Request: fold
Amino acid sequence: MKYKVAEDAKPQLMLLLIATVITIALWFIPFADYLVYPIRLFVTFVHEGSHVLAALLTGASVQSLTVSSDGSGMVQSLSDNWLSVLLTSSAGYLGTTAFGVALLVLIRRAYSARIVLMTSAAFVGIMTMLFGFFAPLWNIFSADVNLGSIAFTVVSGAILAIGLFAIGRYAPAKWANFALAFLAVQCLLNALSDLTTLFFINAPLVGSHIHTDAGNMSQATGLPAFVWVLLWIGISVLMISVGLRVYAVSQKSKQYDLPFED
Reply:
């Protein structure tokens, strides 16, 4: 079956390329990390939120979700289910990739950028209040709870949720569309970048003793942590490949509605 770049996808593809070029250019600009710092925290919320969803869906109890000022995060959950541990540990990196791919698909299918941004705001807000605030306070005597971490998680989560909602609600349509494309690119590139870092952390002879999701997988299965990282990288690349095809390529016989109609 022959594929080609759909005519109606070319404006979207250009938007995606612009967002990608800007993202990569920011890597080489001094102090540009401060410009994308809120997005770095957003990606962390998506990562940790994916852990939370996987834990809940597999019957585990979530004691806390915390996001740190350095962009790292942690979810404390309890489960005696071996499968729950595997799925929850894998959900962070794969969930971030899946979220970015989902944004690409929603853009391609001409879903309103405003609705997607406000839905993302709701996701961050719910994760912040339920698992970043109420859950750790409820489990304050049974979990490793740091009041400073709770405060940063709540404040940063609230600012992100309000910011995303404001962009979705009040920004001009073209800027809302660009913000959504930029978030998608950031999620995907950050997921791959984090997986690359994770590989070096767990690489034989080079790795460190830093506790990671891959380390959890190694303890649960006996397989080396770097094997799980390679598997996650392979799955992420596959998901991104499928997402890009859905985003920019259509079957020759199919027609799609024009994108970005607000």
Observations:
- Residues 251-262 have pLDDT under 50 and may be disordered.
- The first strand starts at residue 3 and ends at 5.
- The radius of gyration is 19 Å.
- The first helix runs from residue 10 to 27.
